[in-house]
Amino acid sequence: MPAGASSPYGAREECREQVNRYPAASFKKFASEAEALSFVGSEARQSSSYSAGTSGISSLTQKSDSYWNELETASPSYSTCKRPYEQSSEEEPNKKHVKYNETYSAPSVSKDKFSYMGDSVVVYTDGCCSSNGRRKARAGVGVYWGPGHPLNTSDRLPGRQTNQRAEIHAACKAIEQAKSQNIKKLVIYTDSKFTINGITSWVDNWKSNGWRTSTGKDVINKEDFERLDELSEGMEIQWMHVPGHAGFIGNEVADRLAREGAGKQNS
């Protein structure tokens, strides 16, 4: 072996360090450097389909409104704060209604404290629910505007404790905060395809159908989506999907804030 060359074991360990933060990571062997580069290029093209705004929502792996509605009433199979799919909690079987405070105020924040994509302000939102689908579920919302930002939020979710509701409420909180700062254009990064599909693809049909799904069932998260829909009026919002737990700093911090919020007491 030439002097200074890495051993096969060392190369494998270096590769392990590069992928150990990704779920379901695996090693792949290539016969040549050209084959490896070709594989990397194809993966990069596939990963670009993870992000979608209102004009590119079709690039998401969409599922019907009735599919998500069925998951909301399904029995839980295991307990974690962030699940690959979202189900409901029976913590409040009588489905208590939460009265929302329509007026939100916050101290004015200098425009140079925000991050921008073009002339739109960027924010990351996330929701989580420990023991999701169980009686002792605890859900929280996280909103991340940037390092040390005064609007960064970590709150306990009021009302029914589910991951779906937490994701929706995190987006609602971000929009409320944006409006308090007279922000009209917003880019919301979220790892919830359910929230994105709901507000961009399904909500108009739900309203036309008397808040029923495509299969005629009541929309379980009706009040939450009604609130998100109302808050979105007068705003130019670009919804961007980002894969969760994939090393994207903004999403990781929003997730941490949501987890901290789930640990708080309800106000």
Description of the structure:
It contains seven helices and six strands. It is α/β, with parallel strands linked by helices. The protein starts with 7 loop residues before the first helix and ends in a 5-residue tail after the last helix. It is globular and about 45 Å long. Helix 4 packs parallel to helix 6. Helix content is 35%, strand content 13%. Strands 1, 2, 3, 4, 5 and 6 form a six-stranded mixed β-sheet that branches.
Task: Provide the descriptors you would attach to this structure in a database record.
alpha/beta, 6-stranded mixed β-sheet, disordered N terminus, 7 helices, 35% helix
- Rg calc: 21 Å
The total of beta strands comes to 6
Biggest β-sheet strands, sense, barrel:
6 strands, mixed
Query: What oligomeric state is this?
Result: single chain
Number of helices: 7
Describe the secondary structure blueprint for this structure:
Layout: H1 8-19, H2 33-47, H3 65-72, E1 116-117, E2 120-130, E3 138-144, E4 153-156, H4 163-180, E5 185-190, H5 193-208, H6 222-232, E6 236-241, H7 249-262
Parallel strand pairs: 2-5, 5-6
Antiparallel strand pairs: 1-2, 2-3, 3-4
